[in-house]
UniProtKB/TrEMBL annotation:
Spans through the membrane: 15-35, 55-76, 83-103, 123-142, 154-173, 179-199
Protein name: Integral membrane protein
Keyword rRNA-binding: no
Keywords on record: Membrane, Transmembrane, Transmembrane helix
Organism: Actinomadura napierensis
Keyword set includes Transmembrane: yes
Length: 250
């Protein structure tokens, strides 16, 4: 295990990303466990931080951790040192605390245990997926591979490929396929599949291009009922298991 870590993580310059990734997941799981214990009002858990009766949300602590980890990381010159790894871990923990209350920041009200608050969990899952792809060595739009090819093919060819791949990912996102579009930034074929398939009902692409009652709209609705709804139910069940059920479903 030690040899693998040294070869695949440390020697490839991904030590800080690894520490960020691990700390991010650990902090998210910890804070979700904490808020669920507080929600159940168990006696053995410390509870909310309420100095003077004022509830301090954990996004505040997350911002402090991000500032400390971010500035600390900028101050460290050796990317492979223990201090660099520690700063990345602090930054990762802070990011998890902030994104866990992303919906609260977006709506500027406490929607943590509502359906609106489920957005925070979705953002965390997306972040974990993207960081995992980066940790595996993938780069957005194939930047590393194109960088090597660019020495022989020239800048205009590289720019053309980048714009084309980015365009496919944007089309997939406009069609309401968030996961396909984001992962497509790393794996071009995924973006291509998302771009050529039908848009999801209610997406910007569908509202703009699918006339009400048209054949494409009917096909999109049928596909949504047949394929998307079961996936959403499964994703909701996973989210409930990890993060707890929203109040509206209690």
């Amino acid at each position: 295990m030690g040899a693998w870590f040294s070869r695949e993580i440390a020697e490839t310059g991904r030590l800080r990303l690894f520490c960020f990734f691990v700390a991010f997941i650990a902090a998210f799981l910890f804070i979700r466990f904490s808020v669920r214990m507080i929600r159940k009002q168990v006696r053995w858990w410390p509870g909310n931080v309420t100095p003077g009766g004022h509830h301090v949300h954990h996004v505040v602590f997350g911002l402090v951790f991000m500032c400390v980890g971010g500035v600390g990381g900028l101050a460290v010159t050796d990317d492979s040192s223990g201090w660099a790894a520690a700063a990345a871990a602090v930054f990762g923990a802070g990011t998890a605390l902030v994104l866990d209350e992303f919906a609260l920041v977006l709506h500027l009200k406490d929607v943590y245990w509502t359906e609106q608050g489920r957005l925070s969990v979705e953002v965390v899952f997306v972040t974990v997926a993207l960081c995992g792809l980066l940790l595996l060595g993938l780069r957005p739009l194939g930047a590393d591979e194109l960088g090597h090819r660019g020495q022989a093919e020239g800048g205009w060819n590289i720019a053309g490929v980048l714009v084309f791949d980015l365009g496919l990912a944007v089309v997939a996102l406009l069609k309401g396929k968030t996961w396909t579009g984001l992962i497509g930034l790393f794996i071009g074929i995924v973006a291509l599949v998302g771009a050529v398939r039908l848009a999801r009902p209610g997406s910007p692409w569908a509202r703009r291009r699918y006339r009400p009652g048209s054949r494409k709209e009917r096909r999109a609705l049928a596909r949504e009922r047949r394929y998307r709804r079961p996936v959403e139910r499964l994703a909701g069940a996973v989210g409930d298991f990890v993060a707890g059920r929203p109040s509206s479903r209690d």
